[in-house]
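Here comes my example:
=====
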Amino acid sequence: MSFTDKTCKEFVDVLATKAPVPGGGGASALVGAIGTALGNMVGSLTVGKKKYADVEADIIELQKKADALQADLLELVEKDAEVFEPLSKAYGMPKDTPEEQAEKDRVMEECLRMACGVPLQIMEKCCEAIDIMEGFAEKGSKLALSDAGVGAAVCGAALKGASLNVFINTSSMKDETYAAECEAKANGMLEEYTAKAEAIFGNVKERL
């Protein structure tokens, strides 16, 4: 059974154990999917209402994007588990001889790149989700305005959570140039989209 096919209780229960997966990356992806779904709910409560007929086409377009993002983020829950498991095994590789150390270093670097790449993708999807949350907050039904604010806050939290899974992997990389490139991407998204998520939340709060 995949992690996303588990019940909420099953997922949380396994997350609380010492099992290597799911971890912070998978949890962040799931949280991002939940936040995106909240925005999508705002759209569902808006479409078909005469009061919002003039923005219905825009809302439907936002929902299409939200549908795709939800699917992508749920897939990334599974991908995060897939790439972390080899890394957890690589840490246990022998290093008693120079040859073993060299092989461990090679495998570790390869696994670290994969384990860093997925949370970067999660961050990118969360940024896209925050962008569409802005649209749901601006044009969606006022009866569901709070849900748009929650969605923005949740996606912002998922963005920050995924970033830590980037940084913990780059900190162990031997290739400092590649590590710096990944960190620059992550920091750029954090700087722009943490502020954007907070601004959406603040705007929603003021309008309630």
